[in-house]
Amino acid sequence: KMSWFWLYLPLHLLMAACLCHSIKALTTSSQQSFKTDLFNFYHSLILADGKETTVHLLKDIPKRYYFVLEEGRALAPFTITVTPCDVPIEWSILVHKASASFQAVRGDHDTHEVSKSQKAPSMVSTIFNYKGNSVENYMGKSSHSALYMLEFLSTERDTHISVYLATDATSGHLYPELPMDPRIDVIGIGHTTVTLTWKHSPSVLQHRESIQYCLLVNEKHNYKSLCAAETAIRSSGMKLPPTLALSLSPYLLEPQQVMILSNSELSIINKASSGEVRQICMGTKNTYTVANLSPSTQYYFDIFVVNLLTNASAAYTGTFARTLKEPEPEVTELKDGKVIQVVLGGKKQKFYSLQYQARHKKIQFTFQLCHGQVQVHITKNGKTVALENILGLRYFSLKGKLLDTYLVQLRSSEESNSSVKVQVSPHFHKPLFPLLPESLKIKSFSKLRTCNSVTIAWLGTQEESKYCVYKKRIEEDQVWMELQSVDRCSGPQSRHKSEKVLCKYFYDVNPQRAVTTETITGLDAGTLYLFDVYLIGPAGIPIRYDGKVVKTRKKC
């Protein structure tokens, strides 16, 4: 009697021994069949028991693995789990039964035994096969008189899969369990949010410390496994940490990734030309609201329950949802000569729209940036006539027909709020905003600085205007904040009376000579001061020069 102990010998020795004993006992066709079977097993690999095996497949080239069980485990259950990580694959489980062949080998080689072998249908039979890209699980009962072979084939392109064999009941906890109903329910949809809920995994209830849920959000399609999602993300040009569940360290991130950790939730955002993919691990919560989505966009959501100890995961049935369309922004009518100030709520507010119907052929739009950064987009009868980011004071002189409709869309280029003043008027109308000098910078003279005085200068215009100077004592660590938080549209009325230095009128018909200086006295030694100059035109609208920080001398 041949013991299954021989199966643990090197496979080529075992096959050679079997071939020598049986080749004479078989007919020509049987000999050829047996040789083919032995050749197939010879080109197979041993499949590890109780651990995940990564298998790399080349296109159209089958790959085979085999496994046998220890003696005394007849009819013991075993499971095989195969996870495709990319394209659909074909895979089969074949069983190699030795009964008929080995009867021929150990008999007296008489006609009766040979004919018995000839009547045996085949040494190898297929007990399971599958084609697709879903995670598939096979459960069976082993036989001590059989050798099992797994055959994998990819017909689309090179790919890789993971295979898990478990022959021990105690090793069946590698993959977390899914609930009886593994669907994800969408319970709320907004313009930029989607709320999801799902039933708890039994593994979470039993092993709360080592199990967590991770969510994948993208705009392309659902993924049937975490390994399939990681493969797709990498192929799109984004580099992904080794696994979603263990991506808890910032040093694992690539430049095109952003990690956000708040309220015990880890979010990783991968950016690529095909859109962004978000990964969010939220512990053991089974309800989650995905925020900061784009309006009127379809998103796909996948939940994976992940075993942090084994790094194995199971996928819920993915779902999708479309965020609500953003409501059309209200349109404000502009009136000739009237100045309005618009406050924009950062990037979250798409546009602020203004509309004007021309009563003259030539018109002029005026924009004064008060704070932040603002993009201006002007269309005439639906066609773009101006698009740019504005700085300071900006005029747009446009020519068209009577009753042309102009639409002005204002958008903040910063995360924080921005504001801008807007005016439209006929081209011949006297502008409300004052005439501006070539530069709004204030100059200080280092050689004229003393312990208690500073001399500054600024440019004027050919138009007689009022100029008011203000000073403010500041600390070293306040300089950046003071200069960044300036509201350029605010006038002297927003300043404290104690900060006022003087107001004066001046102009010069020659722009080259329209320069004025002022020496400010009564200052403290070795102290930083912020100086501001306001230009106030005939209509009373103020223009604020760029602030200048100057420090008085410490010793004189």
From TrEMBL:
Coiled coil: none annotated. Residues 176-313, 434-542 form the Fibronectin type-III domain. GO terms for biological process: nervous system development. The keyword Magnesium does not apply. It holds the Pfam family NDNF. GO terms for molecular function: heparin binding. It is found in: Secreted. Residues 1-25 form the signal peptide. Keywords: Glycoprotein, Neurogenesis, Repeat, Secreted, Signal. GO terms for cellular component: extracellular region. Secretory protein that plays a role in various cellular processes. Acts as a chemorepellent acting on gonadotropin-releasing hormone (GnRH) expressing neurons regulating their migration to the hypothalamus. Also promotes neuron migration, growth and survival as well as neurite outgrowth and is involved in the development of the olfactory system. May also act through the regulation of growth factors activity and downstream signaling. Also regulates extracellular matrix assembly and cell adhesiveness. This is Protein NDNF. The gene is Ndnf_1.
